[in-house]
Structure to design on (322 residues):
């Protein structure tokens, strides 16, 4: 009887081992060594401007965000392989990583915005492919000091993964870069400015002044902020002279239409003036309508001379009363 029980126990142990061994094997292949998770770090191959992985492992931790941050820091280390260099410039700092389901939100320093087009494409691609080498991360989103990357239309670059980010070394022909624009919108009753710092993708071949106007016309992205420039307004031309005067040539829609029902005409004008004067090269703004100077704007403001920036809308009202 005891012998039968012993044989039964032995059979159960064998069955359990048969079931568990494949699981243990798979777990071992994921961890590589005890307490370590397999991963890949992507570096730049200088010869053909492509990315190539180097297999590595990172400490297995309860918080996936810690593992991801450790892997990002590993990207900045010298790969110590001939012909390969780090894809992340030394000046770019990783500030934080947050996990949302299987998406890693990576916040980087503002120095990221100073990268040229080729550097930015390589760096962003390397980050995406490196982090998605971890089983628990499928998608990556980049922010710059808490602000989302946006394209020239003001839309977020959004989620990236191995399907929409290439690593074959192809760099877009157009020269693009990122910039932080300070855009002046208003509140619900038009009593003062609401300033939005917006990270946008800009074309180096397009005047920054035009990009600012495009973003103002597109309207605010923040809740509680309200548009100031009529959405139908068309930009005929915008140029800045050596003496710091920015000539803004707009369509008649700027005169005949309004951004919102409650908008103050003064708000509309100075939202453009203040936004443009945030640029170092712009000191004053001169408005033109269909290429011509006009005497006044809706009988409220003198349009015959250039405008300078103001600190608040209350200041403008005081000037109008005097």
């Amino acid at each position: 009887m005891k012998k039968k029980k012993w044989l039964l126990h032995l059979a159960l142990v064998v069955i359990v081992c048969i079931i568990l061994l494949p699981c243990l094997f798979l777990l071992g292949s994921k961890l590589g060594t005890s307490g370590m998770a397999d991963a890949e770090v992507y570096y730049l191959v200088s010869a053909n401007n492509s990315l190539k992985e180097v297999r590595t492992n990172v400490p297995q931790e309860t918080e996936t965000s810690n593992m991801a941050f450790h892997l990002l820091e590993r990207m900045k280390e010298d790969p110590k392989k001939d012909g390969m260099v780090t894809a992340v410039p030394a000046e770019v700092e990783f500030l934080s990583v947050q996990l949302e389901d299987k998406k890693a939100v990576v916040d980087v320093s503002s120095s990221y915005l100073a990268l040229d087009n080729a550097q930015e494409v390589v760096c962003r691609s390397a980050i995406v492919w490196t982090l998605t080498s971890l089983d628990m991360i499928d998608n990556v989103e980049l922010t710059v000091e808490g602000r989302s990357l946006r394209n020239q239309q003001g839309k977020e670059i959004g989620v990236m993964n191995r399907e929409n980010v290439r690593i074959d070394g192809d760099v877009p022909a157009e020269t693009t870069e990122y910039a932080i624009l300070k855009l002046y919108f208003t509140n619900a009753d038009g009593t003062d400015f609401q300033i939005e710092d917006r990270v946008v993708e800009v074309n180096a071949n397009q005047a920054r002044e035009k990009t600012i106007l495009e973003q103002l016309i597109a309207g605010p992205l923040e809740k509680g902020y309200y548009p100031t420039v009529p959405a139908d307004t068309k930009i005929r031309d915008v140029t800045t002279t050596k003496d710091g005067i920015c000539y803004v040539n707009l369509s008649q829609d700027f005169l005949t239409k309004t951004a919102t029902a409650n908008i103050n005409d003064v708000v509309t004008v100075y939202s453009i003036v203040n936004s443009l004067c945030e640029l170092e090269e712009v000191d004053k703004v001169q408005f033109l309508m269909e290429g011509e100077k006009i005497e006044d704007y809706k009988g409220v403001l003198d349009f015959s001379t250039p405008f300078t920036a103001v600190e608040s809308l209350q200041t403008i009202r005081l000037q109008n009363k005097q």
The longest strand covers residues 176-186. The longest helix spans residues 2-31.
